[in-house]
Amino acid sequence: MIDSTTAMDSKIPILFYDGDCGLCSRSVRFLIKRDRADALRFAPLQGETAKAYLPPELREQLSTVVYYRPAAADGEKRYLRSEAILCALMDTGSGWRWPARVARCLPVKWRDLVYDWVARNRHRLFPKGSCPLPSPREVEKLLE
């Protein structure tokens, strides 16, 4: 794991997620495997990196994933919910960027309705269970 001070020097985007959510942890593993461009880092909303980058109101919304892009053309950007996931998929450099671009054509309200339903039911639908130990590649991409 990388500490939050190292992350602060970086221009690499960070996806903040609920560290106690089974679906969120599986989604992070999915994204790490597809991050061919080595473009992403990941940090739990409950961690030190989130404290350094996000205001308290965002850190407290554990059902909301936040994608922080420090090197956006027009300054820092924070994307929430479905937009956060789609931006992260587009930045992986994998074949998933094309379905993400197509999904972005849907109205945000529709996408976020689906996102909100899954977020409300995530603990019931995807129990945390036991998590395998992270691989060395995963450890390199996880922030505190």
Explained architecture:
The protein is an alpha+beta fold. The chain has one domain (4-141): Glutaredoxin (3-Layer(aba) Sandwich). Helix content is 49%, strand content 11%. It has helices at residues 4-8, 22-34, 48-53, 56-59, 81-91, 97-103, 108-125, 136-141; strands at 14-17, 41-44, 66-69, 77-80. The protein has a four-stranded mixed beta sheet with strand order 2-1-3-4.
SSE order in H/E notation? HEHEHHEEHHHH
- Strand arrangement within the widest β-sheet reads 2-1-3-4
Strand count, sense and barrel status of the largest sheet are:
4 strands, mixed
Based on secondary structure, the structural category is alpha+beta
How far apart the termini lie comes to: 6 Å
The portion of residues forming beta strands comes to 5-15%
Overall 3D form: globular
| CATH class label | Alpha Beta
What number of domains?
Answer: 1
Number of helices: 8
Mean pLDDT: 85
Uncertain segments: none
CATH level-two architecture = 3-Layer(aba) Sandwich
The strand count comes to: 4
Radius of gyration: 14 Å
Query: Which percent range fits the helix content?
Result: 40-55%
The CATH topology is Glutaredoxin
What's the helix and strand layout?
Elements: H1 4-8, E1 14-17, H2 22-34, E2 41-44, H3 48-53, H4 56-59, E3 66-69, E4 77-80, H5 81-91, H6 97-103, H7 108-125, H8 136-141
Parallel strand pairs: 1-2
Antiparallel strand pairs: 1-3, 3-4
